Amino acid sequence: MAGVPTSVVAAGGLVAGYGVARWTKKRPLGGVALAAAGAVAAREWRRKAGNVTAVALSGAYVAAFAGSHPLAKKIGAWPSVFAVAGGVALASWVAADRRS
Fold first, then answer.
1. What are the TM regions of this chain, as residue ranges (predicted)?
2. 99 close to 53: Cβ distance less than 8 angstroms
């Protein structure tokens, strides 16, 4: 995964997870995309910044996914997904990517 920042992987996983679920109408398939990107990001967070940071960022990733649902009721689905993806990307960049 050399060269791809974890911020891009994590944000992409949130966006792709929602996109896959929406366009295929199969939520579990979206969950697979979300989980796969999350696993790749977590592995890289651990490698770049250690276990504690990886656990914290993984928690943020899951919280972003969960938080996007109530936020979507207020601002819409896509804006919500992009907002939480941006938040996770920023946290990932600050905690792991900028060190590289």
1. 52-71, 77-96
2. no
**Residue range 17-40: mean pLDDT, rounded:** 97
Asked if 84 and 67 count as a contact pair (C-beta separation under 8 A), the reply is yes
User: What mean pLDDT is reported for the chain?
Assistant: 96
Burial zone of 69 (CB within 10 Å; 0-12 exposed, 13-18 middle, 19+ buried): exposed
**Cβ pair 38, 54 in contact under 8 A:** no
- DSSP class of residue 99? G
Please name which of 48, 15, 75 lies closest in space to residue 57, comparing C-alpha atoms. Answer: 48
pLDDT in tens, 66-87: 999 999 999 999 999 999 999 9
Which region holds residue 5: left if phi is over 0, alpha if psi is between -120 and 50, else beta?
beta
CB atoms within 10 A of CB 24: 12
pLDDT of residue 45: 97
